[in-house]
Amino acid sequence: MTGQDQQISDALREMAAQARTPRLRTDIAWRAGRRRRRTALTAATASVTGAAVAAVAVPLAVAGRPAPSGSHSVPPLATGTAGPGYHVSLGPPEVAQYFPSKSMVALQQVASVSRKSCPNESHSVPGNTPGTCFFVTGPILTAKIESIGVVRERGVHQGGGQPVYTIAVTIAPANPAQFRALTAKLGRIRSAPRNELAWIKGGVVVDNPSTEGQLPDSFWLSVPGSQTKAHLEQVAAVLEG
Amino acid sequence: MDQQARRDFAEFAAARSGELIRLAYVLTGNQHAAEDLLQNALTRAAAHWERIHSAPEAYVRQIMYREQVSWWRRRSRRPETTMAQVPDRPAERPGTSVEDRLTLQDALRALPARKRAVLVLRYLEDLPEAQVADILGCSVGTVRSQAHKALAQLRSALPSLDLTTTEARS
Known about the structure:
The complex is a heterodimer of chains A (241) and B (170). Chain A is α+β, with helices and mostly antiparallel strands and 241 residues long. Chain A is built from five helices and nine strands. In chain A, strands 1, 2, 3, 4, 5, 6, 7, 8 and 9 form a nine-stranded mixed sheet that branches. In chain A, a hairpin with a 2-residue loop joins strand 6 (197-201) and strand 7 (204-207). The model of chain A is unreliable at 41-99 (pLDDT under 50). With 170 residues, chain B is mainly alpha-helical. Chain B has helices at 2-28, 31-47, 49-52, 56-75, 98-110, 113-124, 129-136, 140-157. In chain B, helix 1 (2-28) packs antiparallel against helix 2 (31-47), helix 1 packs across helix 6 and helix 6 (113-124) crosses helix 8 (140-157). Chain B is elongated, with a radius of gyration of 18 Å. The chains are: A alpha+beta (241), B mainly alpha (170). At the A-B interface, helix 1, helix 2 and strand 1 of A face helix 1, helix 2, helix 4, helix 5 and helix 6 of B.
């Protein structure tokens, strides 16, 4: 090893030594991991049936009014609020034209998530996984989903050379300034779930992506990890309603 | 069975978190991001525990490397930072002074995630290029080019640092 090699190696070691031992939430990691496994298995089964996307999307689309607190008939989402929060990042508005949609969604900051049925109070909304309840806070924003769809990231590949997909979303918030202010606020919060934005359709939280910063009206919804196109299409279908 | 697996997982996390957070810190450059990276890697490890429980650390490390590179790729769509003036650079040859070491650390932190990951694997973990490529899921050629560019960037930040010999490592 040369002197320069040693310098770089020493500098990296010194950087590593600056890390503080974390207070790891192994229980949360374990539960989230197991849910991720279950949802992945469900998604794999659903992709075989072919009709699963419609089966998930239709009840959400036709619900139209808030589900009764504490119970709802929406089947478990085959993709995902149960896993780690999705990361929202900026994306190109030009993809909007390919995925027309006009459904409405309500957006509100998540305050906490409970693994129990929702109590009878106005600040809680059931999740689409039975027995999950979201407590929401702050103003309720409404937005029209102008378009949503799965797009392939050009020039980006996973380890095995497989393509990488992401979800492109364009919305029309009823109050764009308020939407930008809320996403900017969430982007400054480091801890989940308070940095998450609940997507509420038909009285159910269909997704709760975390937000990395202020969003314009068009953005990408990136799902961490190696997700298949079919998996992402299911997520998009549920969001679209 | 699930309870036993859960205990094994908790034991693994408790025993290895110190070492893993240091790796995460070097890859991300800050404590919060390092904790997020490690937590996410452990979540994915839990999802595949039956398959990886005999050697979980290699899996978690690989996840951390790949997640960090992929996170940077998503973030890198944002515009680059602009500065009114070029920052001052040291004129002296870097030695072992605190200032020199800090300058080198700053330069390492400023590297994009993929380049930093390549240097971490080569210089901290002391792995050959083929293994670095395997962990990052890219070709050996990509590893070489990323290392070359990373060293060039370090050289740009530290003009007096002679890194020519290090590029011959394989």
